[in-house]
Design a protein that fits this description.
- By secondary structure, this protein is an alpha/beta fold.
- It has one domain (2-263): P-loop containing nucleotide triphosphate hydrolases (Rossmann fold), CATH 3.40.50.300.
- It has 9 helices and 8 strands.
- The chain has helices at 13-26, 42-45, 61-68, 83-87, 123-139, 157-160, 174-189, 224-227, 242-263, and strands at 2-7, 31-35, 89-91, 106-110, 143-147, 165-170, 195-200, 217-220.
- The chain has an 8-stranded mixed β-sheet, sandwiched between helices.
- The chain is globular.
Length: 264
């Protein structure tokens, strides 16, 4: 299954991606984690030290020139089949594993933002990033979790057709929900109808019925264990609330699976 996470900045997309990936791997699934957000914090949220993080693909000028300008011509459809294995780093599993389960593998690809507003033309880098994302989503026979920016610009129409579900992440605030509604509308225009709203740090109240906001939702309450460590540890794994988070992730995955079945 291929799942994209999107929403306003700072709402918890990266935390959710890290929680889902760890839960899946502890249940025996192989997972590709794609960090396509500007903040590039998925590795640290998953327990990697800053020193262990790979250089984002967006900053690999040597590789961009090699693949996009091979033979002296501009190639907007580069061969990227070998890049996931060569660029990815393994992420350790953090949560508890059942005795009878053989754990899966978590691998992280750090891409960076496709758009480069205000920083000059990034056409070459964009072409390589989009080609790599399309390859991972469309060709890899494994779970793929993509941590997106606020929009869905990373997902071209062909790539979006292979995304099985979109998780719109929001805080319980009007600005955040309005961004989520816009993301939901954009994704539906690309053909991604299987959507779930995750309300992060949500204690009570029903979200407004905004056009574009997914009808199905999961609420994640404030997590004291996470808030207590945020000033000293970038990882969101291994929390005192892990059992509760696991249950919420199972519910989210079940909603997405049922939505995928209904669309088939």
């Amino acid at each position: 299954m291929k799942i994209a996470m999107a929403g306003k900045g700072g709402v918890g997309k990266t935390s959710l991606t890290a929680w889902l990936a760890d839960r899946l791997a502890r249940n025996g699934k192989d997972v590709w984690m794609v960090d396509a957000d500007t903040a590039l914090s998925l590795g640290q949220a998953s327990g990697l030290s800053p020193e262990a993080l790979p250089v984002p693909l967006i900053r690999r000028g040597d590789l961009i020139r090699e693949r996009i300008h091979a033979g002296g011509f501009l190639d907007l459809n580069p061969d990227v089949g070998d890049l996931p294995e060569s660029l990815a780093v393994d992420i350790p599993i953090a949560g508890p594993v059942a005795p009878d389960v053989t754990t899966g593998r978590k691998r992280l690809l750090v891409m960076g933002a496709v758009t480069n507003a205000g920083g000059g033309c990034a056409c070459d880098a964009n072409a390589l990033l989009k080609a790599l994302l399309a390859h991972v989503v469309m060709e890899r026979d494994a779970w793929v979790l993509v941590d997106l920016e606020a929009g869905v610009e990373h997902l071209g129409r062909g790539t979006a057709a292979h995304v099985n579900g979109l998780v719109v992440v929001s805080e319980p605030s009007m600005r955040s929900l309005q961004t989520g509604a816009e993301v939901g509308r954009m994704a539906r225009d690309l053909g991604v109808a299987n959507q779930v709203l995750v309300l992060n740090r949500h204690e009570n109240g029903v979200p407004p019925a905004l056009d574009g906001l997914p009808d199905r939702r999961v609420s994640i309450p404030p997590l004291p264990g996470l808030m207590g460590r945020q000033m000293t540890d970038a990882s969101v794994l291994g929390l005192p609330e892990t059992a509760m988070v696991d249950k919420l992730m199972d519910g989210l995955l079940d909603m997405l699976a049922r939505g995928q079945s209904a669309a088939s």
